[in-house]
Amino acid sequence: MSDRQTLRDWLLTETPTSRRHAKLSALYHGWLTFRSNSMAMLGLAILVALVLTALFAPLLAPLDPFEQNLSQRLLPLGAENHLFGTDSLGRDILSRLIYGARITLYIVALVALIAPIVGLLVGTVSGYVGGWIDTVLMRVTDIFLAFPRLVLALAFVAALGAGIENAVIAISLTAWPPYARIARAETLTIRSSDYISAIKLQGAGPLRIITKHIWPLCISSLIVRVTLDMAGIILAAAGLGFLGLGAQPPSPEWGAMISEGRRFILDHWWVATMPGLAIFTVSLAFNLLGDGLRDVLDPKAGD
């Protein structure tokens, strides 16, 4: 990059001078496309705020989320020292929502690490190897897809036992089949390409071809699918918490907070409404982010 050439011009050039330059240029073009989508930027801003809220929860929460005060139970919105009111045990709802963001991110992060990786492994092996292995793996995938996600998660949690870690495992076990389908479809398209044939002639084995040449081409589709699936994962976790099979009391999990507040929904609506709005906002943010990433990463977006 010369002295007269700005960083922006260097990134927007159509003639990159190195592989690193080309990658940085592609990233910058993707960022410009993403930034032009105002709704995607809104989703990103909400999720950044959620992450910061979870990180600095002890500083942001006005009160201890576990502290009970029965003399101040079911206080309304805007009550003194309780902006979002209190629940049936006198605990500050705002503080519990702030600490509940940690649980939500914990669940989302673990499921996002487990499910796509399992799906990628199953899908690429199935698509590349083919034959009876493909048939067996896809029939197993079909069995998982035949059940509603929440019902299957309930069955796994019932077998494993209630708890947030078991809820994460159960949700992950129900979330991987769509990723396997996507990875298999991508692999079936890629494995017959000319450059794959050339790599085989050079002596590359199946493991190297899958990990070095097929996985990188599947990642973009999986990233888009992950962001769009996050809303469903959050709702599944909240559903398990609502039924008492997720995070256990007194943990400030949003689904469990809704379950507790349903008894007072007519007279003290804010107890269940505030955590419900939190789930709605975060789910919407992930959907908006996913739409923006699809515009950037989907290779068919420009067709």
TrEMBL record:
Protein name: Peptide/nickel transport system permease protein
Species name: Actibacterium naphthalenivorans
Domain ABC transmembrane type-1: 101-290
Segments traversing the membrane: 39-63, 103-130, 150-176, 222-248, 268-290
GO cellular component: plasma membrane
CDD domains recorded: TM_PBP2
Keywords of this entry: Cell membrane, Membrane, Peptide transport, Protein transport, Transmembrane, Transmembrane helix, Transport
Family: Belongs to the binding-protein-dependent transport system permease family. OppBC subfamily.
Subcellular compartments: Cell membrane
Listed GO biological process terms: peptide transport; protein transport; transmembrane transport
Membrane protein topology class: Multi-pass membrane protein
InterPro entries, alphabetized: ABC_transport_permease, BP-dependent_transpt_permease, MetI-like, MetI-like_sf, OppC_N
